[in-house]
Structure prediction request, 817 residues.
Amino acid sequence: MSEIETAGDQPVLEVSVGELVAFACRSGDLVGEVSGGPTALEGIRAHQRLQKKRPKGSEAEYRLQVELVQDGQTVVLNGRVDILHPQPDLHRPVQLDEIKTTYVPPQKLAESARDLHWAQLKVYGFCYGLQQQFDGDDCVALQMLWHNLKEKKTYPESREFRWRELESFARGALAKYLQWHRRWQNHRQLVRTSARTLKFPFAEYRTGQRTLAVAAYRCLRDGGELVAEAPTGIGKTVSTLFPAIKALGETPLDQLVYLTAKNSGRQVVRETAARLHTQGLTLSILELQARDKTCACSLGLCSRDDEGICPRTRGFFDRLPEARLSLLGRPLLTPEVIAEVADRLQLCPFELSLQMLPWTDLVVCDFNYVFDPLVQMQSLRDTHRQRALLIDEAHNLSDRARGMFSAKLTRSDSRRAAAACKGSHPTLQRAIQSLVRALDRWVVDLQESGQDSGLGAAQARKEEKSGLWITSLDDGAPQAVSVAIQKLLLVVSQLWEQSQSPPEAIADWLKAVFRYQTVEQLAAEQHRCITRVQKSANPESPWREQEVELLCLNAADYLQQAYKQFHGVIAFSATLRPPGYTYQQLGLQADSPYLSLPSPFDAGQLGLFLCPFVDTRYRARDQASDALVDMIARTFHSRPGNYLVFFPSYRFLQQVAERFATLFPEIPLVQQTSGSSDQQRSAFLQHFQDGRRSLGFAIMGGIFGEGVDYVGEQLVGTIVVGVGLPQVNEEQELLRAAWDRRGENGFDIAYRYPGLTRVLQTAGRVIRTETDRGVVILADYRFADPFYRALYPQHWHSQTCDNGDTLSTALDRFWHR
Prediction:
């Protein structure tokens, strides 16, 4: 949908036939999955084959564009019909053909899907008649060509319509669309008007806030990219959100998409928006939550029927218009608000939130809704609307994106999936068993070929003994596995097209299979294929487990493609250094502005102490434990309060914790545990409140080291144990080798820079407001290395302590200053 300015007061509304039909003609059940049905490439190829077979004189991809007035609004309708057969003689009408690809015969398609296909063709027929100035009694022949890709067979279905019938149908759809359009435009006008008059929601700007706000506004006004490293406490959310909202009122910008990796980030956006709403802003904000936390079936609010279908998807599009109208223009469409309307109208809350996505001004969601090829929101590909992308905590995006473009399949999970289909889905079970056999054949082929692991000759021999092979996709991808997956997903797609569903027990496994297929189709030189095998003691079954992983080593190109959907992109975080590394990892244009802002706080609020007398490297950890225990105790006793100690691993954490409990049993200790639940995390944080004296041990780079605001006395100090290097494994070594081959320092990119980001994020938990005061202890000899010193933030003024006594003296001096 777009508006074209005319000489008159009212702009012409331009609408594609597909957009009109999807909005106004959809009814019935919500069927299938995003990944179900033929791929776009399969559809294009089938279209091309059928169009080449058209009779002489007919036209393929015939363009239709008509202008009409409906309910006082001038509308331009446009589209392309697949085949036009001109009128062969006076006794036979013009014929329009529409091609739809399926995996099943058309009689097995859901009725709502067939109706939607016919709706599109009927609107095409109306447009053609209007273009040719038909009168009401003129006839148009319409033919649906359903092409079954599995059978390679086309099922034609023809109908003749008088043009007045098609006009009535098309104008009825347009009336629904325009009624909604007017409501939406009224809301948008209120947004623009209130955004123009909006004032900054605080009495004054903090140091650096105005600079960031001005740069953000210019980026969104002019287009392009901006990278902003804004230290903790500067107020990054309001400094980017406020100018973005101003841009909604003063520029052609239509919608904002705000990405945040953590729940705490969404909460800050919600609080900031609430403050702006109290100042008169009219803005509708949609907060998207993960499907598994929103789905009514997952939450036990409904049960699937005998066919495995959620009852809230039955008749979904019949009840959707009422829900959509109820939610339009509401200030905060939180998961709770969406769930309330979904419960009242018995709709799937997750799907309802997706349906509202085009009709809100600000969308707050996780990275994956924009970048993940499996779940990215298709509505963001609408180029008629101008959007801005705000990426909070952008330092997390590189690792997350590599995960989005990686995939993994295991033999044991596949066998369990086959067992779950036994009895209920025999065809699907056989397809999964074929996949298991393909995985077996792949490992045998690797054994027989003696495939080099790609890790170097000595290490390759060592790894092959333990069952690890690494190949590039161009010379070692498991083709038999790919073929088996294609056949498997064909069976799944046939189920979905017939409004049936695979067993719920294999839903997560199916997502992994879809991801594998998607990643394989997108994979390029930055991917490696890793095959891991666990040996078995049984000579008749030598392999206990088999795993094939498509590993992405650099997702920058994929991120860059996603940015192109947006008019402006702002990536911001407290830790985006060094700039060259940041641009490299995030796929940003090298000439995009980089803004490094000063801390808004007084340097005297933070006591930063380097303790190079401790060696925390893996081989030295046994000797380091006593020194760390002494350091932690000295820090705690210097000024009792709430402290967090961050470790590089759970094993090291447990080792020091046991020693500390033995030597200082009077100091209560709370520890982060691996795989902790939301309730356990909440209980951990409850220890860190004003007035308490808690000592916590946590993992660097984990949930407690990022995205948590410990204000005031909630945290008075942190001890950072080690430089945060990622664990050495085959994936990190492949990453290192890939950058080395490009002439870069692979060790820095794979290990030192990511480790530094963890350290900076962890240290940033201490000072959150103008009144906070606290200490950061950096415990490792490497922190004194020139490499790290050169990358420390400008507001860091460190003091080196050569032993425990020196540290105690320095701490006393800081606390009593």
